[in-house]
Amino acid sequence: MSEKIRIGFVLPPGHWLGGKNYLRNLFAAIQAVPDHTITPVIFTGEHHEDLSDFHDIEVVTSSMFDHKTAARFARRVLIKTASQDIPLWRLLKKHHISVLSHSFQTGQSKTIKTVGWIPDLQHIHLPKFFTPEERTRRDRDFMSACEHCDAVVVSSKCAAGDLISFAPQYAHKVRLLRFVATPVPLANAASLEDLRQIYNFAEPFFLLPNQFWAHKNHRVVISALHQLKLQDKKFLVLATGSSSDYRNPAFFPSLMQYAEQCDVLDRFRVLGQIPFHHLAGLMQHATAFINPSLFEGWSTSVEEAKSMGKQVLLSDIPVHREQAPERGIFFSPENPDELAAAMIAANDGFDIHQDADMQTRAMARFPARQREFGEAYQTIVNKLVPSTK
Fold first, then answer.
1. What sequence ranges are listed for the domain Glycosyl transferase family (predicted)?
2. What's the rounded mean pLDDT across residues 194-206?
């Protein structure tokens, strides 16, 4: 029997929900591969956030990953003076790690292979959403990953093309790994009746499960609702996700001011961050998901719609075309009239029995899609570190 390759993943302090969800999906895919040859190990701080999503994954804690600790300070000094993350390499070796994956590490190790991860190069396409300092930092970090890592993972052909254009000398390191989202578990999902009572709505609804960041383009949804109101058509959009954006603290208040100006506050309902079983219920019972983003590396909400068999109204951007959801309706992200027409079509064509049937079919197809994801990642790792007998 082959000895499994131990893969280290550093989960830094903070609340980047997208990164956490990505790892949750990746770990599930790894474990879905029959006789898988790799095993993930999480490295995180001693004061880490809730890791219940990773209850079946080995976790190693160290204060070097916590904010404002002596170990973290010493680590930063060593990185600056030696251009190597010596404390991290030592910790990884202590726990028999063969590959450090999805991490922006400093320097290289002679014994540990590294797989970098670049979610997207949005700052090149939409520089207005980043400060000059952020653009410089992203350029530096991404180039460093390309230079020092043995391979660099991206989630789409679009991102692969962007990265090769950005760092053509490292094109040979780029690896395509399209992630597949695990369907939300519906066994404990809140019922439609409970959701209506909790969130005070009665009519059918569209679900917009995106963080309130400028590039997520909630504004076009508000504009579409305004156009529908002028046509005397009342549709409800329930929006979930954090309203905080450190890059642009004024964005959410300005968005809600725009909704007020359009007189659609009763139709664009912000629920914020809600319990997971509530979100699962909303996903199950929504007429359709909406993703109006101006840019994505590989959309989680679109993948969730695919895995659940849900209809999704999505912006006509290259990566969404690449994701190709079976029940997708595309609209120009700059054209609220197109989105309004898509909402009318989705609403008029909605059939609860057909929706349930499509969910059942998607769930039946999911295991094969998940295994394909896990096998693709395992192939990347095995080419770096062949499994040993």
1. 203-345
2. 98
The pTM assigned to this predicted structure is: 0.92
Domain spanning 5-180+368-384: CATH 1.10.3720.10 = no
Among 2.170.270.10, 1.10.3720.10, 3.40.50.2000, 3.40.710.10, name the CATH number for the domain at 192-350.
3.40.50.2000
For the cut 60, the answer to whether the pLDDT of residue 1 exceeds it is no
Name which residue leads in pLDDT, 11 or 310: 310
Where are the chain's structural domains?
Answer: 5-180+368-384, 192-350
pLDDT category at 16 given cuts 50, 70, 90 is low
